[in-house]
Amino acid sequence: MVKHTGENYYISTAIAYASGKPHIGNTYEIVLADSIARFRRMQGYQVYFQTGTDEHGQKIENKAEEKGCTPQQYVDDVASEIHRIWDLMNTSYDKFIRTTDAYHVRQVQKIFKKFYEQGDIYKGHYEGWYCTPCESFWTDSQLVDGKCPDCGRPVTRAKEEAYFFRMSKYAPRLIEYINEHPEFIQPVSRKNEMMNNFLLPGLQDLCVSRTSFKWGIPVDFDDKHVVYVWLDALTNYITGLGYDADGNSSEQYKKFWPADLHLVGKDIIRFHTIYWPIFLMALGEPLPKQVFGHPWLIQADGKMSKSKGNVIYADDLVNLFGVDAVRYFVLHEMPFENDGVISWELMVERLNSDLANTLGNLVNRTISMSNKYFGGIVEDKNVNDPVDDQLKSVVTETAGKVEEKMKGLHVADSITEIFALFKRCNKYIDETMPWALAKDETKKDRLATVLYNLAESITIGASLLEPYMPETTERILKQLNTGKRDYADADKFGLYKSGTKVTEEPEILFARQDLKDVMEKVEEIRKGQKATSGEAAQSGTAGEGADAAGEEKPEIHVEPKAEITYDDFAKMQFAVGEVLECREVPKSKKLLVSQIKFGDQTRQIVSGIKKWYKPEEMVGKKVMCLINLKPAKLAGLESQGMILAAEDSEGNVTLMTPEKDMPSGSGIS
After folding, report:
1. Global confidence as pTM
2. Are residues 605 and 642 in contact, defined by beta-carbon separation less than 8 angstroms?
3. Domain residue ranges in the chain
């Protein structure tokens, strides 16, 4: 494998909004970023990893007032809690920035003044709709059913003096940049959304100051105004590195900027791929190389709400399952583009099957057999069978497969490749049957070779696992009495030192959990949440979070239909399709028409989902479809199938998508 020694890599998360304790959906982002940062370090890069907290805005001013403290006291408490959880999850960030830090405040003031002096900012009056939780302004046409199009919450009418940034001045240049750099916005569906919804229709000038509240960075030449929270927050990516608007930026800034990757939630990608690049253009600074809008980690039984007692926090998960088990789950269960699902039940299932059985049992058996048959000494006697070559082929190819997946930020798939190695080791044990070899004294050297091959395979697999489960890697290698394999040698077999003595007492890496016992503990957690349900759960940028009103949703009554037989069901053909194109049906308020690829064929399907999905959001999606439905004409267009969707009691619709990435044409049964 090729090492990237001496090359720099800068990765950042979105800074967490300091309005409350982050739930597991918010925490997912920092763990995802940490896995990427650790992987790059393993490859030899010199990594700079920045995270932090966004601490200004009207929402925080209101929350502080409700709590009876100053805004600064409020954000100090919340930032401390966020910091604690980031550390709890064993994340290896290099910088934790707070937007109340004095150096950041000063640079934001200098940046604002620079924009004003060069004519990019002008004073005017704002009148329109404002969403306090999102800190976003909207026009009448942008509202959805009179509410914020991002979060669905109520908006308030706002009229005040404000400064505006001339977005339209830089929009053509940004459009050109995005077209010339297709890798800039990922996944592709997010790029299509930004281009078609915001840039191509014409970008409006952006309100960049407020006068209706005080908790923000003051505009130093006009103290009635505070800087708009997004201009304040976005600049953290450069101020944290040592950027100086007067031209005296630090060596660290010159070394690491532009950022290699901004990792953000899909709900705030507009700010990072439109506003932020334009601010940088106005500063004369290079744009980040890539912005990845990751999906959300969603609660299996609906939106998280303390009044329902179903908010899942990282520390509660860690108390029950351990840090690395939680890291494994949130990283492995998140598809590349579609939302992932989390529940206590799923956590128990994955821990027992993947961690306790596939990995933990493999390590335990290998070390136990080495102790039982050879007093813990692992030696390569070079007594080989064809099955050894099959194992070695899988093991030596794993690093390359992992690297390829990580190159495209397919983190879940990279972990799957490593666990495929561990599964192959378990199969190798079944194939070679060490317990049978041990009964034949003439097979002693063959038995030693088998155990050596297992120790070497586990060493390579555990070393590759380090970015995702660092503590587990350390524990495995300690039991094998070896160090982490250098990345340059991760595709070489046979470097485990022959004659090494493993630990005498193998450690249980992951104890199996009983679901009933776990759910009893979860019930106590839920009771505690309900008792403090006056505090709303944070609905931050990293994951779909709180039900803001804490409302209980009514149970859906399922009206039974007539029973069918298996033969009836077998007549229906379901398959995974990839949306290649999608457009609105002219003169229709409900219909979209999509060109969907199913393996080697493409079908046109008309669906009534326009209220919930925009055409550009559909492109690139993997959807589940009924494909042998008799064609029908809808609004004059032929529809050659049906996209499957779920609908709740309020009529909200969401498409059915595969839990993991599946090739188009995959059958559904």
Report:
1. 0.79
2. yes
3. 335-501, 566-668
